[in-house]
Amino acid sequence: MKVPSVVSALLFLSGCAAAGTSIPAPYGVTQTLTYADRNPDDPYDTEWKRPSKDVVLYPETQNIPLDNLKKHLRPPAPRIPDSYDIFVGLSSFRDGARCGYTLFTGFQRANKPSRLFFGVVDQVLDDDPRCIEEYCKLANEEWPYEKCRYHKQIRVEEFHADEARGPVYARHLQQQMIEDEEFCLQLDAHSVFTNDWDIGLVSDWKTTHNEMAVLSTYIHDLRDFIHEDGSNKAPYHLPHNCQTTRGTNGLVRTVAADIIVQPKFPQLTALWAGGFSFSKCHAEKRVPVDPHMLWMFDGEEFLRASHLWTAGYDIYSPSRTGSVVYHNYTQSSNHFERIQVDAKQHKKERTMAENRFRLVFDWPFMGEVDTFELTTKYAMGKTRSLQDYLEFSGVTFNPEEQDKDTCRQLYWVPYTDPSEVEELLGDWKMGEPEKPTTEETPKLQALRGISMPSDQMFAGGFFMVAFVVLAYVVFTKMPKRKDPEKSNV
């Protein structure tokens, strides 16, 4: 009799109820995350030989909170107007040729190039090729009857490379070029697009079923994923960020991406990647990049993720549908070491930025710190708490503890204070049911409709299992009927 297995299920349910959380039902779609078992003390240890681990993910359930009392809550549904523009931000450091090709493939391979606007922060020395000039050379060859086609849709902020202060400052300037576009894409300036990339990105973003979604990951190298005609040969193994380590002076950095096998849906993550980030532009406008984080490389991405998450945004790695742009990882010869920067000033600016980072996360530091606008314009969001983000991301600043990976199925965390998001969207209130869009499948409509209170869900499940156990016991104890053909009567 297999009653013990049923009893175990009952105990599991009661334990979840006591804890106030339970794992949502998995539904039909699954995808496998394969992640490296790294040395916790040195994730780049080449002598650490451990097999990778696999975990099954259930993306259809990821927008359902774990808290039983909040399972009826969902993020706001995506809003896509009939016509929309896309802003693409690029920050180029003495990389004109590759930057120009990024612009060219962006326009040439877009489904609606007239709806695209690029913003380029071009950091150059006097004799360096300019990004816009390199683009115009390619554009004039492709469209010879129109001088530098689409050049009016390219906004450029050019300044001398000696004035460069690292990627965060450049991304701040990049943000200033956003106008009234609906969607915003941030890329490294040495990326390559594929055909209809604009359609693929918006389609993938929509399947998050979250207006506050940000698609972000460490995108693949070019390899052979792009055919000569620009069509996409998307790989079946796509990057997903779920492990952190400590870089320069203990600042948080993401370890090289792990892999999801054949992802069918975008997958919720806690970590953001600077080389690929796609969202509604209200994310860029509501969560400004802090320009005082000078010379920050390690720490930049974690800081951005924490600002986005506390402001109500959720980060997802894209599926194959959204894997439409690739990274040119060939090494550039134009390094920061080649520019003229006062060494003492550089050290001072870098130390003050690192201390600013430490101050944000209530981490001890020594020396000067720049606190300008830290608690106002560049403060953490009010929608969710920083402490909740640290728990969600597995990152700790306790010297006696180590970071925990998030290589598992994550679940949407409802807003502690939804007022700013409600004000942004106007017609959405957290807790009120939304009408599903006409393009939703019946399965997703059913998924969105799960709103039974947790106590009712548990009670119903308990009695259902109890009924099955009772029926099984009664059935097995009933006397068996005699076969009339074998009766002695």
UniProtKB/TrEMBL annotation:
Source species, domain of life: Eukaryota
TM region positions: 457-475
A Pfam family reported for this protein in Swiss-Prot or TrEMBL: GlcNAc
Signal sequence segment: 1-19
Keywords, alphabetical: Membrane, Signal, Transmembrane, Transmembrane helix
Protein name per Swiss-Prot or TrEMBL: Glycosyltransferase 2-like domain-containing protein
Organism annotation: Aphanomyces euteiches
